[in-house]
Amino acid sequence: MTIRNFISVTAEFPLEYLNGFKLDGLFISFEKHLYHLSWEQMDRKGIYQLRFYGSEQDFS
Predict the structure, then answer these.
(1) Largest alpha-carbon pair distance within the chain?
(2) The model's pTM
(3) How far apart are CA 36 and CA 45, in angstroms?
(4) Sign of torsion over alpha carbons 59, 30, 42, 18
(5) What is the pLDDT of residue 34?
(6) d(CA 24, CA 30)
(7) Which sign does the torsion angle of CA 34, 58, 19, 11 carry?
(8) Which helix (H) or strand (E) holds 3?
(9) Going by DSSP bridges, is the β-strand pair 58-59/48-54 parallel, antiparallel, or unpaired?
(10) Which residues of 2-18 are buried (b: 16+ CB within 10 A; e: fewer)?
(11) Are 16 and 23 in contact (CB under 8 A)?
(12) 3 state SS of 50
């Protein structure tokens, strides 16, 4: 379920709602190794800063 939701969020990016929940720039899961994805729209329309958080490394 976590992988399916993560694929939906990234494949249909930027996704406002997932399974009835407003994401508001944030996706959190309970999967052990990849549990947090956040995004912020930059000054130019269509450009986002993505941040992936995992149990062993975080990156933007």
Answers:
(1) 34
(2) 0.65
(3) 23
(4) positive
(5) 67
(6) 18
(7) negative
(8) helix 2-11
(9) antiparallel
(10) eeeebeebeeeeeeeee
(11) yes
(12) strand
